[in-house]
Amino acid sequence: MEKLIYTYDVIDLKRKEHRDALVSLMNDYMLDEMGLGRELSEDLADKIISGLQKQNNYIGFLLKTDKKYVALANCFVGFSTFKAKKLLNIHDFVVTPEYRKRGAGYTLLNKISEYSRLKDFCKVTLEVRDDNFNAMNLYKKTGFQDCNPRMYFWENLL
């Protein structure tokens, strides 16, 4: 298998190319077995873009090879009161299916950690389904680990 060269961009939602890549990759996420199993509607795609444009704490990352965007991370800046520093939470992370197990996810996670160190964030966090073993293996390879003490992600649907 050929070694791929990846480049990454911090998303600029003013750029149509970045908006289109974000929507395309979110659609891959929606269609995945770990997603909702159905395509992203045009209405929801528009709402995602307009909603992200309103978030002053949004940072997105795209990974590209061969002039094609192949991975996406939608992230949000938070604040750790224990460390009195910013943190970065990866909210969505997706690699398009044909680039999985080809270093794309590994590269993007490392670029996000590098960016976060340069910006003096205290940590990068993410959530993962307890049945998503492929994702967990990738995350472990890039230095992520279960929180100590173990944390759980809870929700209150409104």
UniProtKB/TrEMBL annotation:
<dbReference type="GO" id="GO:0008080">
    <property type="term" value="F:N-acetyltransferase activity"/>
</dbReference>
<feature type="domain" description="N-acetyltransferase">
    <location>
        <begin position="8"/>
        <end position="158"/>
    </location>
</feature>
<dbReference type="InterPro" id="IPR051016">
    <property type="entry name" value="Diverse_Substrate_AcTransf"/>
</dbReference>
<dbReference type="Pfam" id="PF00583">
    <property type="entry name" value="Acetyltransf_1"/>
</dbReference>
<keyword id="KW-0808">Transferase</keyword>
<dbReference type="InterPro" id="IPR016181">
    <property type="entry name" value="Acyl_CoA_acyltransferase"/>
</dbReference>
<keyword id="KW-0012">Acyltransferase</keyword>
<dbReference type="InterPro" id="IPR000182">
    <property type="entry name" value="GNAT_dom"/>
</dbReference>
<protein>
    <submittedName>
        <fullName>GNAT family N-acetyltransferase</fullName>
    </submittedName>
</protein>
